[in-house]
Design brief:
The chain is α+β, with helices and mostly antiparallel strands. It has four helices and three strands, in the order βββαααα. InterPro entries: DUF6061 (IPR045705).
């Protein structure tokens, strides 16, 4: 069983064995190239789907996700 808690600047993932993983969103997003739209989508991802955000952050794929979000914008 996992428990996920999203605070204003971090995501806590607690595993069934008591292991706690805290991801500082400010550190995870440091250096990302975002637009206002993709930053909004990234914030929504952290709030609405924190496990997916954590997976992307741990895999080092946040920039790839942001780039994909930016490519979906209608010009």
């Amino acid at each position: 069983m996992q428990n996920t808690i999203c605070t204003p600047s971090s995501i806590d993932v607690t595993k069934f064995d008591g292991y706690l993983l805290r991801i500082d969103c400010n550190v995870a997003e440091d250096g990302l190239r975002t637009t206002p739209c993709s930053q909004c989508a990234l914030d929504a991802l952290a709030i609405d789907n924190p496990l997916e955000y954590a997976r992307l952050a741990l895999d080092g794929n946040l920039q790839m996700w942001v780039d994909a979000e930016d490519s979906l914008e209608i010009l």
